[in-house]
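user:
I keep going back and forth on a fold encoding question. Separate attempts, laid side by side, tell us more than any discussion would. Would you put together a sequence-and-structure record for a protein of your own picking? Write it directly below this note and I will take it from there.

assistant:
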Amino acid sequence: MIHNKIIKLINSGSEIAGAAVAGALSSLAGDPAGSAAAAVGGVVIAKVISKVGAELHDRFLGPREEARIGATIAYAIERIKERLDEGLSPRQDDFFDNNESNRSSAEEVYEGALLKSKTAYEEKKIKHIGIFLGNVAFSPELSAERANYYLNLVERLTYRQLKLLVVINRGKEFGLRTSSLVNQRVNPEEWSLLQELNELHNLSLLRQLTEKRDLDLFWGLGAIKPGRMELTRLGLDMVEYFDLNKIPRSELVNVIDMLK
């Protein structure tokens, strides 16, 4: 029964996840227990995905909400399989163990991620939420509390802000502007981009440095110098755990051009 619900959810995500759905369904084939264990080498991770996915399936979901959740599960299974194929082992701490309420930290994190995917109208974020679910299963250094915080951040950020994290992290490669725009005319779209950069700064995801690499406490959007910015540890974690470097270069071009 659980198996059928997961298959239905994953199938519904085909328009969003495409090849990832086909891969997930192929992995799930021949898994009569419905735990998706065959897909991911018999690890307990899959049981959590199946249990949480089946519970969400039983709630009232609109067609697009169901598609988003299904796509997220497909991306998660794809990433888990990649990690196992790389020879990595799932985390061995208490992340997957039930607590006094007969519920594990993994279930809480996975349910939270799928609920955030359900309302992710910027659907390109869904792939990275699914990848995050795959990565967290192999990252014992990442507590459930910190994982939930990162999920709250990715829900709050726009997809363009996720692209900004990638571009700032690779600023030297892209030749970003190191001069100020104070007293210069800036078009509305560029101004909006600077506002998004400033929000990333306020969230401690990035910082601006002087030429001597001292902290630059800039004031005003015009004083933002993208080429002098770098990601904080928090920003680097977001890039790593959500695998934001998988965002295609073609999607970064517009942002890069406005920050040159």
Q: What stands out?
A: The mean pLDDT is 89.
